[in-house]
């Protein structure tokens, strides 16, 4: 089988993240301003990126920020701006939502500047350099998050350096497992949901995700030999020892959680290859969900 497109797309992330950050001065007026009450929406991967950004923005003091799946946005709430994330700009729920918000300023972050969603949003921030051939999203989602984090003032140079490290971290000793659980705290919780989704999409693999503090409230019951508990960022005190006592393997890398997601993306693709699956075209999935 030829090398999947997703391999090159994962490896390109340090470069696409730099490009996304460099774009910020030219698109800043389309992005949330300090003090605005903001909602960020997406579907699937884009929703999880929205979750991470929402917590990051509010934690850094830029303003109240909520995240919703596109189909679950509460139309009765008032926001100063709604930011929609959609790689293709064709997702039904995002188009329907943008159509339903004529009085609210809207910004679309997309890879396709002339998409149907772009025609509905007040502002469009296009990241065509981060578009992908693989159905499985990797670099578009993380480049969108880099754009948003750079706009918040996060240190992109350090982030990109960690991304380069993440491409070289060995994973061969991780793929001989039958289950993985991703955990984190704060803004990185959204990234754990994305990591678990990647393994389910690409490799039809049993993977779960939880806030790290909540992991001990039930999910730890499935930890056992042959399974991974993978932390993005520092874990709560004592949790690594509790996981070790179950026989499961505890995994943590000294990386920005967003860079840690790259390791998980590589893990998902390696699992798929090991099972003889095509990670570019997962079973039952398409590039965009367009509902009748």
Describe the protein's architecture and organization.
The structure is a single chain. α3 packs parallel to α5 (139-152) and α6 packs parallel to α9. The strands form 2 sheets. The chain has a 5-stranded parallel beta sheet with strand order 2-1-3-4-5, sandwiched between helices. A 4-stranded parallel beta sheet has the order 7-6-8-9, sandwiched between helices. The protein has 9 helices and 9 strands. Helix content is 38%, strand content 15%. It is globular. With 292 residues, it is α/β, with parallel strands linked by helices. α4 links the parallel β3 (81-85) and β4 (106-110). The relative contact order is 0.16. The protein starts with a helix and ends in an 18-residue tail after the last helix. The chain has 2 domains: 5-154, 3-Layer(aba) Sandwich (Rossmann fold), CATH 3.40.50.10490; 164-274, 3-Layer(aba) Sandwich (Rossmann fold), CATH 3.40.50.10490. The protein has helices at residues 5-11, 13-27, 45-59, 92-99, 139-152, 156-166, 189-203, 239-246, 257-274, and strands at 38-42, 65-69, 81-85, 106-110, 123-126, 179-184, 207-211, 227-232, 249-252.
SSE string, helix = H, strand = E?
Answer: HHEHEEHEEHHEHEEHEH
- Given as residue ranges, the uncertain stretches (5+ residues, pLDDT < 50) are none
Q: Rounded to an integer, what's the Rg over CA atoms?
A: 18 Å
- Shape type: globular
CATH A-level architecture of the largest domain: 3-Layer(aba) Sandwich
At CATH level 3, the topology of the largest domain is Rossmann fold
Strand order of the largest sheet: 2-1-3-4-5
Count structural domains.
Answer: 2
């Amino acid at each position: 089988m030829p090398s999947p497109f997703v391999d090159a797309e994962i490896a390109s992330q340090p470069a696409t993240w730099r490009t996304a950050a460099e774009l910020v001065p030219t698109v800043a007026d389309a992005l949330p301003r300090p003090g605005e009450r903001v909602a960020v929406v997406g579907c699937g991967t884009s929703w999880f990126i929205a979750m991470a950004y929402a917590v990051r923005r509010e934690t850094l003091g830029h303003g109240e920020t909520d995240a919703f799946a596109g189909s679950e946005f509460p139309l009765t709430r008032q926001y100063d701006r709604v930011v929609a994330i959609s790689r293709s700009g064709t997702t039904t729920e995002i188009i329907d939502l943008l159509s339903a918000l004529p009085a609210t300023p809207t910004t679309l972050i997309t890879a396709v500047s002339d998409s149907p969603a772009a025609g509905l949003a007040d502002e469009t921030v296009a990241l065509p350099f981060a578009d992908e051939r693989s159905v499985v999203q990797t670099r578009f989602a993380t480049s969108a998050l880099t754009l948003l984090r750079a706009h918040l003032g996060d240190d992109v140079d350090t982030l990109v350096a960690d991304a380069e490290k993440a491409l070289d971290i060995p994973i061969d000793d991780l793929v001989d497992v039958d289950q993985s659980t991703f955990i984190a705290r704060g803004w990185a919780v959204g990234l754990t949901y994305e990591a678990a989704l990647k393994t389910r999409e690409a490799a039809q693999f049993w993977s779960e995700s939880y806030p790290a503090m909540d992991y001990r409230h039930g999910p730890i019951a499935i930890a056992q030999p042959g399974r991974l508990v993978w932390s993005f960022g520092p874990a709560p005190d004592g949790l690594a020892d509790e996981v070790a006592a179950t026989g499961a393997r505890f995994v943590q890398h000294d990386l920005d959680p967003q860079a840690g997601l790259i390791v998980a993306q590589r893990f998902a693709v390696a699992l798929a290859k090991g099972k003889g699956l095509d990670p570019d075209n997962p079973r039952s999935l398409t590039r965009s969900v367009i509902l009748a």
